[in-house]
Amino acid sequence: MAFEDLPAFPEFIDLDYFGEAVEFLKKQKQVKSTAIGVLGLSKGADLAISLATFWPGIRAAVSISGSGLNTFTPLRVKGLTIPAHPYDVTKVKIIGDSEIVDFSEFMADTSDPATWPCRIPAERSASKFLFLSGQDDRNWPSERFCQEAVQRLRESGRHVEFYSYPGAGHLLEPPYLPLCQASIHRAFNIIVVWGGEWKEHARAQEDAWQRILAFFRQHLSNPDVKSHL
């Protein structure tokens, strides 16, 4: 979405677009084709979960500030179309006298049965899952979204880990990158608040990064490899 020549708001997203990248990666001689992992942030996170659910050979998936829902745009996969999770634009807020937009309340309640067709059926997948979220996420309620997906996975006996960080915002990035509390949203071309407190967000990024590395090593690496450079 809004990447290079791609439209910001396509009619639908075809998962095959990302699946082709997975197949390309599998063909590289440096890659163990049976040990592919995916990671995504925000909308990219629900695409990562979708890949792990529907695409063969994905052994581990990391969702950062994401959800177990298909958001914003219908997702087409293997003859199935998962509708976009509903939202209410009347709940979009402008912060004070600024032009900064707060989207934190505009997504529909995930407990409403009307939203259930938008769920990504990750519980059908044999992949391993790691969910990470910040409790000061001002873009959307990623903690609540993650809890909904984690509950479904645990009820189905799937391997899932979940960590939620107090004071952390939406953009959980690699450690030592500065906190970005607000920026221009490329697709909407408006200034969006992401949330996060300086110290808490920095600590969360350090911890989350180590958990991501450990998760991928556990589920993708050769157990005989001793070096973890």
Automatic annotation (TrEMBL):
<dbReference type="Pfam" id="PF08840">
    <property type="entry name" value="BAAT_C"/>
</dbReference>
<dbReference type="InterPro" id="IPR029058">
    <property type="entry name" value="AB_hydrolase_fold"/>
</dbReference>
<protein>
    <recommendedName>
        <fullName>BAAT/Acyl-CoA thioester hydrolase C-terminal domain-containing protein</fullName>
    </recommendedName>
</protein>
<dbReference type="GO" id="GO:0006631">
    <property type="term" value="P:fatty acid metabolic process"/>
</dbReference>
<feature type="domain" description="BAAT/Acyl-CoA thioester hydrolase C-terminal">
    <location>
        <begin position="13"/>
        <end position="221"/>
    </location>
</feature>
<dbReference type="GO" id="GO:0047617">
    <property type="term" value="F:fatty acyl-CoA hydrolase activity"/>
</dbReference>
<dbReference type="InterPro" id="IPR014940">
    <property type="entry name" value="BAAT_C"/>
</dbReference>
<dbReference type="GO" id="GO:0006637">
    <property type="term" value="P:acyl-CoA metabolic process"/>
</dbReference>
